[in-house]
Amino acid sequence: MYSVNYHRANSVDDAAKMAEAGDAKFLSGGMTLIPAMKTRLAAPSDLIDLTHISELKGITISGRTVTIGAGTIHYDVATHTDLKALCPALCHLASHIGDPAVRHRGTIGGSVANNDPAADYPSALLAMGATIITNQREIAAEDFFTGLFETALEEGEIVTAVTFEVPEKSGYAKFPNPASRYAMTGVFVAKGKDGVRVAVTGAGDNGVFRSEPLETALATSFDAKALEGLSVPSDNLMGDLHASPEYRANLIVVMAKRAVLAANG
Amino acid sequence: MSYTIDSKAVSQEPRPGQCLRTFIRDAGVFGVKKGCDQGDCGACTVWLDGVPVHSCLMPAHRAKDKQVTTVQGLEHDGHLHPVQQAFCDAQAFQCGFCAAGMIMTVAALDEEQRADLPRNLKGNLCRCTGYRAIEDAVHGIRSTDDDIAGAACGASLPNPFTQGIVTGHARYTMDVAVENLLHLKVLRSPHAHARIVSIDQSKARAIPGVVEVFTWEDVPRKLFSSATHEDHLVDPDDMYVLDNVARFVGQRVAAVVAETEAAAEAGCRALQVEYEILPAVFDPVEAMQDGAPILHSKGNEAKGNIFVTIKGEVGNVESGFAEAAVVHEKTYSTSRVQHAHLETHGSIAWRGEDGRLHVRTSTQAPFIAHQKLCYLFGIFPHDLHVFTERVGGGFGGKQEMVSEDLCLMATMKLGRPVKWEFTREEQFIGATTRHQMTTKVKLGAKADGTLTALEVHVVSNTGAYGGHGSETLAASLGSPLSAYRCKNKKADGHAVYTNMIPGGGFRGYGASQSTFAIECAMDDLAEKLGMDGFAIRRKNMIGPDDVIESVWSDPSDVSFGSYGLDECLDLVEAALANGEGLPAPEGNWAEGTGIALSVLESGPPTEHRSGGEMRLLPDGSYHLAVGSTEMGNGSINSHRQIAASILGTRGNNVDIINADTDLTPYDTGTFASTGTVVAGQAVALTAKALHDNIVSYAARITDTPVEDWSLVDDAVMNGNRRIELTELYKIGTEAGHRFDAKRKAYLSPRTIAFNVQGVRLAVHRVTGEVRVLHSVHAADIGRPINPMQCRGQLEGAVAMGYGWALTEHMVYDDHGKMLNPALRNYHIPAFADTPRTKIMFADTHDTIGPLGAKAQGECAINAVAPAVSNALANATGVRFAHLPFSPDRIFDQLSVTA
């Protein structure tokens, strides 16, 4: 890899200060940023390592409110006993990200801040109406994910945690990309006090999005049968070497059914 | 603050931006491998404070004050870690390049994770084994036999490199510290067809550390082919070391040599090249049209872009079709795929203290590389030494000289050692691929299924250079057609230049492509006749009394050394019917079963030769030298087993060296299924000669008949009379006798091997997902020298066949640029994608190959993709005639048909 300056931050404030100089990027697990740097899709002059900041790590549960520190690795989310009891869909999602080595390094904050259109977490946060907490403010998931690899984050702003109220029921199903195993289409369904929300990742040509036709159908009856015969439009879906928009539209319905089945356990 | 690798403090600090993988290797710990450098393959897996991570994705600075553990640090008190031992016992590797990372991942799994290997081994790719042996290791299954004197042949002896592989100490091509080393990197063409107008080197030369830049003006103006064959005339001399015309995206444009890899890369980026863009053509049919841009003007202009046309006919197909009750005609096509051996191409060249030039490289053909290098650079053969140490996979990809030439040229000019290691991206865009072929098949049959005519037309896209173009085309028109008895056969084919990456040798070698077409067509014909796949094949497949004939009636050196095709078919039929495998999943799945057969001559039609040398050593053990390359195919093990068997000793009593132009006799190369039938034959002849040397000497000094003496382990015996070999050696050498032998083997006649693949699968009607429920494979490979290794070769070939059928595909844009040049987007089968395949052997003993053996590792791949297509057709009623069968393509075709 090319020459880059490495800085180890010990606190969020520390990290924010370090970011003021040069063309710096925050480095969490590095599971996306480092490969991007190797192929020069990203070329920061400085890396600010967030992984030694203890305040960013850990999962706290208060009633049905869950707060996950941005530096929490996928492995810890996947295996958290209390979280598993409360929101198994999220643990299931985390346990299917990447491979063991990735799950031991990759973090929820990194995934959210990077907003890869095929990442798993954004669909969960959007469907559960989560709030993304940064060192400067709190942002609703709805407003946070703004496009392909685009978020509402400002320069120097650091995601510190995500928080959400666990819905009554939730489920996640993805059709893995045959090559990368990223979600070629992933659907997270949540039935909570605000009704049914369905978020789709891996399929939209502008990143994660909510599917109105699916939400409407499931609002009537939160049952996979409610989706029988339903089809969603392929407009604004991604077409690439692995799948056409039409194929992804097809997968959205199939994955939604599977997610509902999982949610209804 | 410090760095610790395998409990040893490391004094140096990482360079800014350095990843942990290279930091570890700079510390001399070469057990950590590079397969992709992008977190996709897992070969670099190490533990950081006990947790497995991809060391290529880890800035080395992050390891500060943490414990880094590599495969070299797993041993405890001189004992292997239990997982290392398990990998020994199950022989859970072939080339062994993935093992270092695989072991680190497996050793970190808890019981729950071990129960879900498909998910937890996702991050570790193996290209050789098909994962069965790895699964065996995880479950503590032992596959090896004891090494018993005289019983080496037919025993599953462990690979002699086992200890080195599981401890990370086996040395692959790049696993060596070289002082004063320079690094070479190459700028590759962004254009599919362009003339280089100028190259401004000034900015590149100004970069600190850059030592030299080479362009087309600096290389010998000699045409050659990077393809390696004994007869160099079968490949066209159509390339230069560096050319002033780029003919595909990824062709070498210039080389930069620098003090560091980073400086060499920066130098490449700083070169300013002015290109004159030329019109390009990518499709071979378009390339044959009048007015298509012509790629080469090297004496072949009259034929346009057609590099070669091959045709033939026996009987008369026209009358054959006239007498047919049913005629089937359809076009089938296969995709462009890459070998994806985990060790990329690479070489290190230097001038030794002996004044000679040395090239350490990752090749399947060091002797042919040696010849080509001598020719290109005007070197007297004795002054050049080319050798391999351990090679991390080949599959035909390394039957090609693509890195040695530039390294050697640079070291000749600069006087310092020079290294060049391909990146994974270069492996995809700058090496070679399987030839993409489109095959039209026309079959005619009587109502009872008897074939009356078989006609095949092949168009092969050989890409920008013609290496292997003629031989793969000839292979595509050869054995797949001789598999069937038919009076009237006709075939023609063209290998056509286009502005695509060049095709090359690839396991199955041309025959894979047309086998796909013919085996699919055979089922399509059977469907029309109302027959099943077994019946139509039994009716028409070649039998032991038939003439082995494709479309040429001239005499052939292909003979039945043994025949087991009928048995293979019976084995597969019985296995598919035995109720094993998985049930179809619940839901909207369609289930289907398919079979296909493949036939391959053991060895190429071109000349092929090999030699062996053996010596008895003072301690009573043996030394064997053979030129053949070991790249995970297990030949080094089977060779010593052949020798040990003939000498009545244990495998471990034979020390072996291979693939070294200084230390071993000449060998054409390990390709075209020759490892056993040519190099193995040379070993057998050599061992027999040494055997005779030893017993005849014992007879002579005792004045007894030679036939009364035999070799048993470490002695010669005559009744109760026993002379230890150590003693015999002493007596003999003192008397001036030499206990050594040298023999050569040539390939003729060529025997013939058979494979049958059976698949039962389920396909999801809505998502197009395919799940293999039951996979069975029968092979007639003669007598297995090492049954476990043979099984592993077949499992690996079948797994690669599933990759070709289901997941692998090199995708290009309209300008000839590859869109998925990474293992993240080009998907070789992972553990989860690879069904376990039941491997069965026909009970045959070949009369041509050494000790009853014949070719094994290559032909198995050919039957897999057509068997999958036939099973899909059986499940859905739809013929999938174009590889690969990825879910989106299946969905597309099923929705159209629905």
TrEMBL record, chain A:
Gene3D superfamilies: 3.30.465.10, CO dehydrogenase flavoprotein, C-terminal domain (3.30.390.50), Uridine Diphospho-n-acetylenolpyruvylglucosamine Reductase, domain 2 (3.30.43.10). The keyword Disulfide bond does not apply. It holds the Pfam family FAD_binding_5. The keyword Disulfide bond does not apply. Keywords: FAD, Flavoprotein, Oxidoreductase. One of its GO terms (molecular function) is FAD binding. InterPro entries: CO_DH_flav_C, CO_DH_flav_C_dom_sf, Diverse_Substr_Oxidored, FAD-bd_PCMH, FAD-bd_PCMH-like_sf, FAD-bd_PCMH_sub1, FAD-bd_PCMH_sub2, Mopterin_DH_FAD-bd. Residues 1-169 form the FAD-binding PCMH-type domain. SMART domains: CO_deh_flav_C. PANTHER family: XANTHINE DEHYDROGENASE SUBUNIT C-RELATED. This is Xanthine dehydrogenase family protein subunit M.
From TrEMBL, chain B:
SMART domains: Ald_Xan_dh_C. Keywords: Iron, Metal-binding, Molybdenum, Oxidoreductase. Residues 1-74 form the 2Fe-2S ferredoxin-type domain. InterPro entries: 2Fe-2S-bd (IPR002888), 2Fe-2S-bd_dom_sf (IPR036884), 2Fe-2S_ferredoxin-like_sf (IPR036010), 2Fe-2S_ferredoxin-type (IPR001041), 2Fe2S_fd_BS (IPR006058), Ald_Oxase/Xan_DH_a/b (IPR000674), Ald_Oxase/Xan_DH_a/b_sf (IPR036856), Ald_Oxase/xanthine_DH-like (IPR016208). It comes from the Bacteria. SUPFAM superfamilies: 2Fe-2S ferredoxin-like, CO dehydrogenase ISP C-domain like, CO dehydrogenase molybdoprotein N-domain-like, Molybdenum cofactor-binding domain. GO terms for molecular function: 2 iron, 2 sulfur cluster binding; iron ion binding; oxidoreductase activity. Gene3D superfamilies: 3.10.20.30, [2Fe-2S]-binding domain, Aldehyde oxidase/xanthine dehydrogenase, a/b hammerhead, Aldehyde oxidase/xanthine dehydrogenase, molybdopterin binding domain. Belongs to the xanthine dehydrogenase family. This is Molybdopterin-dependent oxidoreductase.
